[in-house]
Amino acid sequence: MLLDEHAQIPFAAIGIILILTAVFTSVYFIRMDVDMASTRVRGMQISDADNALKFAVSDLQRSLNYAGIHALNTIGKTPVIEIDYDAPYAVDENGVKCTAPQSKPTNDIPIIQFYIMIADFLGLYGSDTGSCITPYEFNQNWGGALMQDYLNNLIDENYQKSRFTYKGYVVHAEPVDDWKKIRLEPVKMKLNRSINPPVMQAGGGAYADGYDAYFKATVPVKITLSRVDGTELTSEIVEITTLIDSSYPLLRSLVEEYSERSMGANVLMGEVTSMAAATTWAKGYMQFSKGSPDNIVDNSDLEKMVNLAQLMEHGFVFNSADPDAVKEYFLTFLLDGVLGSGEAANIGGIGDEVADRTLESLNDMQERLDSVDEAVNTGRSILIGIDLMQSAYDSTDSPGGAEESVNSAAMMEGVNANSIARHVYENLTDDRVDEIAKSVYSADVEIKVTRETTSYEGGNHAGYPYDMSAGSWTYSLSFAENLEMNDIGSLSPGVLGGEVWQVYSQRYHKWARCGWKTTSETVDGKTTTSRDWVCSYLSPTPVDKKSEKVTVTFYSNSNSEYYVNLNAPYSTGSRSTVNDVGTAFYAQDTPDGVDGNLRHAPDILVSERGYYGTARENVIKYCPGDTKCPGDKMQRVTVTNPYPDWLKNAARDAANDIYQSITGDVHLDPDINFKNYPVPSELLVKAASNLTARIEANEASYHNTSAYTDTSGRYKTASDKVIALTREWYVDEVKRLINVQFNDAAEDSEMNIRSKLEQELSGNKELKSNADGVFGSIIDSMNRIPSMLSSQISIPVNQEMTAYTVDESGVSYAAGDSRLFNDGVQLEIDQEPDYLDMDQKTDSTGGEIYTIGVRNIDLLGSTGLWLPPTNPPYVAITNSWLIEVEGEYVSFKVTDVTNKAYLNITSMQYEPQVYVREEAAVVDPLTGEVIGYNKPLKFGFITGTMILTPFKPPGIGDPIEELIESSEKFSG
Q1: 447, 559, 581, 553: which is closest to 493 by C-alpha?
Q2: Four-residue CA torsion sign, 304, 309, 311, 312
Q3: CB 866 within 8 A of CB 955
Q4: Rounded to the nearest 10 degrees, how much is the dihedral formed by the CA atoms of 601, 607, 610, 614?
Q5: Residue partners of 828: CB distance under 8 A and separation at least 6
Q6: Would you place residue 905 in the very low, low, confident or very high pLDDT band (cuts 50, 70, 90)?
Q7: What does the pLDDT average to over 943-955?
Q8: Which helix (H) or strand (E) covers residue 806, if one does?
Q9: Do the beta carbons of residue 913 and residue 248 sit within 8 Å?
Q10: How do the residues of the chain divide into helix, strand and coil, expressed in percent and rounded to 5?
Q11: For 364-377, what is each residue's pLDDT tens digit?
């Protein structure tokens, strides 16, 4: 097995590596031989034969290193990315041939899907054995073959035909008969970069335990020691081990990491999202405040963002950017920003402000270009700062205006409680006040009637002793007389008052005189006798007369009982009060007029409740004591007393007072803005919580309960209670609506964006099925924006790094540990083209290509989404853009410019280690056959940007004709 990631480096081997590494810095082969020999010899007691053998092993180690450097340099120039499985190096660790991966067909038709499933089950598509080897392992196999060839040439030249002699001794070495015997084991190191991104730093994920920085090579070689006369002394197989002084594994790892970070929901996507969001805010809030520019998200801006993000990634991964690409970016971006501005293009002679800005930008650009040139010419490392927010401002026609708009918008003053507070005040209807007032102007009252007969005069019925029946007592108004009135007016529960009446009544009374009467009757000579009870009535019927004292007592069991559910959790749950109006049954003077309170509750009980009749006299006359009225004599009823006419206006004035206070007092926390919460839905949820908390902080003053209560805490009047409860209801309703509206708006915003996103992705089944994942990755990327924008980003040119060895867990060895060694790493990046232009085709092996394609879609239209659209007042306006990016480099080359070079025997020049990705067939110099293909680095991702502004017609968005913008790579 050529790759064994579980192998560990022995301490002794590390010591050898340290010695060899020092030796490899020498230029001349002869000098290296002398140094190596002197290092090996430790005293005169070592025999000449031993010295000969040791010098040979050391020389073979050096030869193995040269072979490794040669092989890895060859691979680095044309690495195999796409394997040709007919190549001899497509074998697994046991030497078993790998075959190309086989993919089963796909089809959308259900019956064909069924047959595919059956065929797959039966194994008709074969096994996917191509996965037995990766391109990395393939290249290591190929490297072993290249090393075998190079090493065997050296062995043939130096260890055959008695060429290696020392003081009468000959060392003979056999060529390596199989490249599979050469084992390459990675040595892991970590990099101490001078620059790191705010989030998702390089060296994480799969590289958290370190990079494969070097290879330790091991090969068994049969060595024979003989005297010059041909006498063989010893023959043995020696394990030749060395550290290949080539950074190919590190360059490959870094390029792979760079590629991974450029695809899908990864770092490049996050960086472009950050810049796109910054530009969206800059342009969007300019449109919000000034009406221009029309187009908020523009493909030309996205093109520059991708180029800048890639340069940033150069710095984050390689600690160095392509200097030509940096210069091209500055030239394209800065010149386009100042000379291509709308003001300069539309006016023959530009104004002073534009001229000053142009000159300033040109000077800034020249300084940047000069600093890059100086770094390249002198080999000095520099850092070029990039302010993402300023880049966003510079992408507009008015950088100053954009910054002003964004800074103003950062306060989010338009997203507040004002519109909802006004809405609640304006919709405080008479019915709402009436509902509160009817609860307050109410009492749970009962009536009790007792009667006491003060005189009774029966009608004269002398001689008629038998009482046959009496009619109902009948009354006449002329008989009724109010004797006294006691208006107590106590707090409930208690007696409200009493009335005592003298009542006169009469009734007709039937009396009779009765006895037995005997009667005889003879029929047919037979006499029959009968005996009957017979009565005779007094006529006319006598009249009874009665005088009564009737006491009518009114009791209050409760007053002003009020209960309302306040829709928890948006408010405090509920309000419930009872028996808290002082002197509830007395009329009171108030600043607005007289409040009758509940004074007439007893009258309403009697006169307006049909249950007792239509007049007070009915109770007095027809509700006898100790018997039942037309219901139980202790019947409890709730009565509602009419409230004064001025009360509704007074309640509305109180609500208006709070509305004015909220407008002046309640402002969104400055930290809750689009910079800290770039996702509109999350900003709205946070804003709702913050505004509610700020209202609650002032809630006691808004209620102002003390103005409506006495020292004992009771409401002064029923009208005071109505006004106080209206204030409480108003505050709770504002809080409730803020939460309902803002949270509904957040949900509506997210739902609409998700729906539009799925609709736009519908053409791609894989993306459509993963629309939630795409949305989630966009949200995750948006949430990283604050970290990306919080500090200035730097682009390094030729910045050196330090590599240091780590153990298998990625932990650095302690200082003084023999296994610890550091290494300087300085890389040079060369990409083609230097600037990825979406409008320009570039020559490639496969013909002309667009190296970058960008597309943006305004998901919510030219006016955005008004939140919430079905329940004014509108909270805010949101819009969102879907952004798609695809691209590739014609060539991407990484060079290790530190002192690691090998001598190209053909050109007799020293060459540094490189790693190149481009479109090319890879030809094996050993066979002359194509063994695979190198492939260019590609990148691509889907992301989005969002904006939330306060409500302001006509809205925020791109013009109708530019809702979908596609560059030629997408359009063609």
Answers
A1: 559
A2: positive
A3: yes
A4: 180
A5: 320, 798, 894, 895, 897
A6: low
A7: 90
A8: none
A9: yes
A10: 40, 25, 35
A11: 778 878 888 888 78
